[in-house]
Amino acid sequence: MLDYYLTNDPAFLEDASFATNVAVYSFLKDDFRKGDVSRNPLFQWAFSAFYGMGIVPVEGKAAFFSKMESLRNTYTGVGARQSTEELRPAMGKSYFSFATKMLNLLDDAEYPIYDRMVGLVFQKPFNPDKIRMDHQHSIYLDIIDTYRSLKDHPIVGRFRKRFNCQKIGYMKILDSVFWKLGSMMEQNHEMFPWE
Fold first, then answer.
1. Predicted pLDDT at 7
2. I need a labelling partner for 3 at 20 to 30 A (CA). Which of 25, 55, 93, 195 fits?
3. Where are the domains of the chain?
């Protein structure tokens, strides 16, 4: 499906949203490396704005960034499901998407992001109030498998070259590509021709 769309629109990577995405994500990665994000209001504001965390209560955000900091050196083997369940009491409900965003920032070569736009491409829209955790996790595993199969796809190298982002993991690059495809699907109110 990725091959079909990209060969029919060679200007795909010229979209200005990719440059913004790379710039903000690079800032977040760099700022995360500098120190304790649970005490860094600029990092928290930028992460919250970039990933749309306005819906999360203040105490939920505090717990989220404390969790992110606690996982800084010990995230190996931690999954999105486990993180979501641990954060649920403080955040007021399950925010599976935010847990995947946190894990992706910790290791963007291992953990993809799953949100509504990516879900549109996979034809499995994300709605945390209606979809059970088991289903969310199953979709997330499908995304991991798909992205791993596309690790060496030419779009990854073209993206890195176009945006000079050698330090960004392939999972984040593919997330950006799939997010953009989902956004286009939503904007056009239609299915892609490979479906």
1. 60
2. 25
3. 2-8+16-188
